[in-house]
Design a protein that fits this description.
This protein is α/β, with parallel strands linked by helices. The chain is built from 14 helices and 16 strands. Strands 1-9-8-5-4-2-3 form a seven-stranded mixed sheet, with helices on both faces. The chain has a three-stranded antiparallel sheet with strand order 14-15-16. A hairpin with a 2-residue loop joins strand 12 and strand 13. The longest helix has 18 residues. The chain is globular and about 80 Å long. The relative contact order is 0.17. Bound molecules: pyridoxal-5'-phosphate.
Length: 394
């Protein structure tokens, strides 16, 4: 049958005004990358986040932001980086590529994100950094995580790829850690034409080398020149972090994406608030269905990037539910974030062992409902109705 509600690869629709911003950029922007829209986006983003001007840098996606964060850690052989096993692969592999040993940590049973207790359990004297992932758009308890880590001189990197606009006691996700990564991928609540990202860097010294790391190591010559083309138009150099080489790449984000990103910041709170209202009414509508356990959060701590539930009746019941929803009702739910230690990539690196029972259990029983912002109210009502009916049939 035709799929009535697909698990969409795209989260939002653009307004005509947003389309016009991109069109205008196509007509007139010079250059098409690294121009005024980049600076506008970065400034507006920093101000939205409530962080210092000059601390946010746009990049071509969230993974690049995490690659940069890994490069800025100054990782030495033997250093460990703690990452939840229940997350997307980009939370982890940039740190492994930068030379760290990945150490898996579990998520909390009720929230599906890390907390100070799950992190503390796997900390060692070799821990260099912790990646705190705000998975599904639910913000981890950053004050207690930062306290724990900074007491032990451990860096905190927030993977806020799914958490734009989330707040903990009025402070934004991605403003607590030493660094933070954001994604503007097609799936995310704010998307810049499918790809895009941002990195926040708290440390002023580390900030200075970000433009260079993001753009091939390009920098100015450290002396006055008589002719602007001698010895070359510009210099390239090799930046260092704590005495370790940080390798450059090209992670730049184009002007059209930046112009659109800046424009979308005007509306991201209303996108998130609408998703939260919708999630709460969906969850409350299923209050009589104890088989599905949702995380219910009324504050901006959750932006409901994704709407997920645990099936209390186990994996088989979950799979039957998914099949009926898809084949009989045309509703395509998903199962997300297989614990990374189960993937071939990490097995080949000797990282297949993990003691993360809460993340394992959640993955084996979880259901992720289609929840893009462009669903109609009618679609959501239909999905709630069919969910109830399917649970009765189980
Ligand atoms: C989307 C995502 C990323 C990667 O972002 P891209 O922009 O797709 O590279 C990293 N971590 C998490 C948790 C994500 O959801």
């Amino acid at each position: 049958m035709e799929c009535r509600i697909p698990f969409s690869g795209r989260s939002i629709r653009y307004t005509e005004e947003e389309v016009a911003v991109v069109a205008e950029c196509m007509r007139s922007a010079v250059p098409l990358t690294q121009g005024r829209f980049l600076h506008e986006f970065e400034q507006k983003f920093a101000s939205y986040q409530g962080v210092e001007e000059g601390s946010c840098f746009a990049v071509c996606n969230g993974t690049c932001a995490l690659e940069l964060a890994a490069a800025l850690c100054g990782i030495r052989p033997g250093d460990e980086v703690i990452v939840p096993s229940h997350t997307f692969t980009s939370s982890a592999y940039p740190f492994q590529k930068a030379g760290a040993k990945i150490v898996w940590c579990d998520v909390a049973e009720d929230t599906h994100v890390v907390d100070a207790a799950t992190i503390a359990r796997v900390m060692t004297p070799k821990t260099k950094a912790v990646v705190a992932v705000h998975l599904y758009g639910y913000m981890a308890d950053m004050p207690s995580i930062v306290n724990l880590c900074h007491e032990k001189n451990v860096l905190v990197i927030e993977d806020a790829a799914q958490a734009i606009g989330c707040e903990f006691h009025g402070r934004k996700a991605g403003s607590f850690g030493d660094m933070a990564a954001f994604s503007f991928h097609s799936h995310k609540n704010l998307t810049t034409l499918g790809e895009g990202g941002m990195i926040y860097v708290q440390d002023k010294l580390k900030r200075q080398i970000v433009p260079m790391l993001r753009h091939n190591g390009h920098c100015a010559f450290p002396y006055e020149r008589k002719d602007y083309w001698k010895p070359a138009m510009g210099n390239v150099d090799l930046p260092m972090v704590d005495g370790r080489t940080a390798w450059p790449a090209n992670y730049c984000l184009g002007e059209a994406e930046c112009a659109l990103g800046a424009k979308l910041l005007d509306r991201i709170d209303s996108i998130n608030d609408a998703k939260r209202q919708r999630a709460l009414s969906f969850i409350d509508g299923l209050a009589d269905c104890p088989e599905l356990v949702f995380l219910r959060e009324e504050t901006r701590r959750h932006n409901y990037h994704l709407l997920v539930a645990a099936m209390t009746k186990g994996t088989e019941a979950r799979d039957t539910f998914m099949r009926i929803m898809y084949h009989e009702h045309g509703i395509q739910c998903a199962v997300q974030y297989m614990p990374l230690n189960r993937y071939d990539y990490y097995a080949r690196l000797g990282l297949s062992e993990a003691s993360c029972p809460a993340g394992d259990r959640f993955f084996d029983t979880m259901i992720s409902f289609p929840f893009h912002a462009s669903l109609s109210d009618e679609d959501v009502a239909y999905m709630a109705d069919r969910t109830k009916q399917t649970l009765l049939e189980l």
